[in-house]
Amino acid sequence: MVDPVVIIPAQASSVTVQNMSPTLSPGGAPSAASLMAAAHMMNGGGLQINPDAAETLTALQGIPSTSPMYAEAQIAITNLKAQQTAITANGPTGIVQAIQAAHGHCTIVSNLNDQFATMSGQDFGDLGVGVTNPSSMSCKGLSSFGDMSSLSSLMSGGGGILGTGNMSTFGMPGGIISSLIAGNLGEATGIVPLLSGMGITQDKMTDPTYAPQVSQAMGQIKDPNVLATIADHFGLPAGGFSSIADFLNPANLIPGFSSGGLSLSSLGSKLSDMGASFPNPASAASMFSNISIPSLPSLDGITDSFGSQMSGIKDMMASKMGIGSGPSGIPQVSDFLPVALGTPSMSTFLGGATSGSLADLNQTLSASAALHANAGIPSIPSVPSLSDHIGAAQGLGQMAADELSVPTGAGDVLNSMITPDAAGDSIKAAMATGKNAAVMAAVGIA
After folding, report:
1. Where are the domains of the chain?
2. Burial 374-409 (b: 16+ CB within 10 A, else e)
């Protein structure tokens, strides 16, 4: 059976995890600290089962067959042995792989929880202008501005004069003026001198505040030769223009174009808000021609609000996300790997073996097994290769860096297992190196 792919948020990482095996990406040269950790882990050093977990197993095995707790103890022994064998099967690198997989899952769940919390209070309109349902959501609301092929034709044929280079003035009088000036037609057409005479300098010609005056001036220039020159320069059909202002009408730019009430300035504002940047009209035309608007009658037919729908989606994913000991029930790495960290239930049991403390211990072990099963994370990773060893070592630093923003408890689990020797120190060094690199990168230090 092929193990499921575990996705770890990339952030600044050069390490990905596939089938729980971290692999090096091109350009991801390991640090000296990572190489030290990799070498020690490759030779079996650096990490070990937490003493509490080891002592718990010994204590369980000491419960006599005459004890009322014997049957429960045997269940705990079986589960504890199985989990300890699984996490140690491939040595320290296997331990890191298991922690990375759990850390990745906990990070994803934490991010999803935040995302669902935000979306629960939203409606489709909060996702952007023109978004009203799932199908319009797929194109960020652009479908509300018309047919994509028509918009592509508009950009291809009329984008030059309308000004695709700056979407904040696209389809506005200022956009036309910018295009004319860029095409060395500002003076030749007479529009720049006319506006200057009105007290509107070039820095104000694209300012929306002056759009009414600019539009009025454009309407005053009606020389057929000037209009023909503009049309020829921008590859537009001759005729159909009675003044420069007519270049703002899409129907004049594209023969047979049906605007359907399209507002060019609204389209430009939408694209500007989206951060669109087009080096030329062809790139804008290409974008629209490649946008697909799916037919989603079943989804679009749901009348619940966006927030309600997403709350339902969260409920559908809940079993896979799992429940743990973190904030809002978010799983922590220790919930996956109690045998690595040692847990309060183990400490309680070691402090005094009772039927209650034994029941709590079995509950902890059962919950761990259920989390692995529900999350689709195999308990025993594949036998590590050289790249796995190095990737796992790099992953130590990445997990430490990740925890600056999303604490999953991975660092706590690792620290509880570090051995008091050079191999253990190499694990600490790799973690600190990765974390410090992320802290310094945030302020521009490479």
Report:
1. 15-119+316-441, 136-290
2. bbebbbbbeebeeebbbbbbbbbbbbbbbbeebbbb
Residues 382-421: tens digit of each pLDDT: 667 676 787 888 899 999 999 999 999 999 999 888 999 9
- Those residues whose C-beta lies under 8 Å from the C-beta of residue 360, and which sit 6 or more positions away, are 345, 348, 349
Give the closest residue to 361 by CA, choosing from 373, 343, 345, 350: 345
pTM of the model: 0.73
Whether 440 and 73 have beta carbons less than 8 Å apart is answered as no
Reduced DSSP (H G I as helix, E B as strand, rest coil) percent helix, strand, coil of the chain, to 5: 60, 0, 35
Question: Number of helices (H) and strands (E), helices first, in the chain?
Answer: 23, 2
Which spans in 278-343 are helix H? 281-290, 297-300, 306-321, 333-336, 338-341
* Residue range 69-121, pLDDT digits in tens: 999 999 999 999 988 888 888 899 989 988 998 898 999 899 999 999 999 99
Alpha carbons 171 and 158: distance in angstroms, whole number: 10
